[in-house]
Amino acid sequence: MTRREGHDQWRRKPLYFAVREAVNSFIESSVERNWQFSKQGRDTVELVRTLCLRFDLFARQIQKRQRKRSSIIFTDEYDVQDAMHALLRLHFDDVRAEEWTPSYAGNASRVDFLLKREQIVIEAKMTRKGLDQREVANQLIIDKERYSAHSDC
To answer: Is residue 42 within 8 Å of 119, Cβ to Cβ?
Structure first.
C-alpha cells in the first residue's frame, strides 16, 4: 500500500462511520415510527401486563394485616376492580373506569378501565363458583372483539 492510499483510507474512515451511524439512526427511527408500539408503548404494555400477572400476589399480601387489624377482602369482581384501579392510578394519570364501548353485535358494554393516552383497555375478571377459568377465557375472547371497536383501544 502506498503512502497516498493509506492517507486516503484514514480520511474515508470517519465518513464511513458517519454514514453508517446516519443510516442506522434512520432505520431505528423508521422502525419506531411504523412499528405497532413505540418503545415507550411496549414498556407501558409490559407494565400493565406485569401488574395483571402479579395481581394475585398483591391481593394475598394486602389481606395479611398486622396486629389483628381488619383486612381487605376480595369477595367479588368489584373488590378486584377497586384494587386494580388504585394500582393503575399509581402509574397512570388518566385512568377511566367503566368507559362505554361502541355497540358490537347489537350490544354495548363498558370496559373496566381505559388508559386513554396509552390506548389500553383493561378488563378485570374474578373466578367464582359458577364462573370457572374456562368461562372467564370465553368472556375475554368476546370482550376483546367488543373492545377493539373502541377508538381508544
So the answer is: no
Cell of 49: 401486563
Taking only the tens place, the pLDDT of each residue in 87-116 is 999 999 999 887 766 655 556 677 889 898
Report residues of the chain scoring pLDDT below 70: 1-20, 22-41, 100-108, 150-151
Distance CA(70)–CA(140), nearest Å, equals: 33
Contact between residue 113 and residue 97 where contact means Cβ atoms under 8 Å apart = yes
Q: For residues 116 and 151, what is the distance between their CA atoms, to the nearest angstrom?
A: 10
Q: Which three cell numbers stand for residue 67?
A: 396486629
What grid cell was written down for 28? 431505528
| Domain boundaries along the sequence of the chain | 1-35, 36-147
